[in-house]
Amino acid sequence: MHTILIVACGLFGLAIGSFVNVVIYRVPLDKSVVRPRSSCPSCSTEIRARDNIPVLSWMMLKGRCRSCGASISKRYPTVELSCAALFAATGARIGLEWDLPALLVLLATLLALALIDLEHYLVPKRIVYWSLAMVYGLLVVASAATGEWHRLLVASLCAIAWFGVFFVINASSPRALGYGDVRLALLLGVGLGWLGIGYVVVGFFAANLIGATVGVALIVTKKMERRQRIPYAVFLAIGAAVAIFTGSLLLPPLQPYL
C-alpha cells in the first residue's frame, strides 16, 4: 500500500509539475494560468493534448516544437520530474494521512516560487496568498478529521511569529529583505509549524546557512558582488524542504535546545 501511494504521488506530481511550469512562465507576466491553452512561445501554435504529456512528450519531440521546430527548454521536463520527486518523497515521508494534500500544495508552491525568484527576483503575492489559503484550508480539514486542533494553533502562531520577524527586518532594511519574502513567511510558518516548532527552527536556519554558504562561495569566486541581491525565496524553499524531509532525523539531537 505504501509503495502504491508513493507511485501515485509521483505520477500526480508529474501532472502538477506541468501546471507549475505554466505558473512559472505566466504569473511574472501577469497572465492567467487557466486561459488560453498552452502554446509554443516561438510560433504561438496551440499545443496539442498528445504533445502536452509531462516529460514523455518532450522526449518524443526531442525537445522541439512539432510545428516550427523551435527548441523547448529543458526546464519543462526538469520541473515536472522535480515535482514528481518531491511528491513521491512526501508520500513516503508522510504516508496516507490527512495532512498529505496540504504538504503537497506547499512543496509545489515553493518549487514555483523558487524558480520565479531565481529568474525574476520576484515572489508574487498572487501565488503566496492563493497557496496560503489552500494550505490553511486543507489543514483545517486535517484538524477536523483528526481532532488535532492544537497543531493548527501552533501552525498559526508560527506563521504570525515568522511574519513578525521578517516584517521587522523589512521595515528596518528593505534592501536586506523584500516584502515578498515577508509574505512567504506566513506560508512557511503554517506549513512547517503544523509539523512542529522544531521544524520551523530547522527550516529557518537551514535556509540561512545554505544561503550564506552559497553567497560566500559566489563572492569568493567573483561570480557575485557583495552588495548584489540574492533570490532569498530559493533558500527559504530549500530550507523548508530540508526541514520536512530530514527534520525527524535532525530534531532528536536538538530537542534539549528547542
Structure description:
The protein is mainly α and 258 residues long. It folds into 2 domains: 96 residues, no CATH class; 161 residues, no CATH class. Helices cover 70% and strands 0% of the residues. The chain contains 9 helices and no strands. The longest helix is centred in the N-terminal third of the chain and has 25 residues. It is globular. The chain starts with a helix and ends with a helix. The model has no long low-confidence stretch (mean pLDDT 90).
SSE layout and pairing:
Elements: H1 2-26, H2 56-60, H3 75-94, H4 100-120, H5 125-146, H6 149-172, H7 179-195, H8 197-220, H9 232-254
Percent range for β-strand residues: under 5%
Calculate the terminal CA-CA distance, rounded to whole Å. Answer: 35 Å
In the residues, how many domains can be counted?
A: 2
Radius of gyration: 19 Å
Structure at a glance:
With 258 residues, the protein is mostly helical. It is 70% helix and 0% strand. It has two domains: 1-96, no CATH class; 98-258, no CATH class.
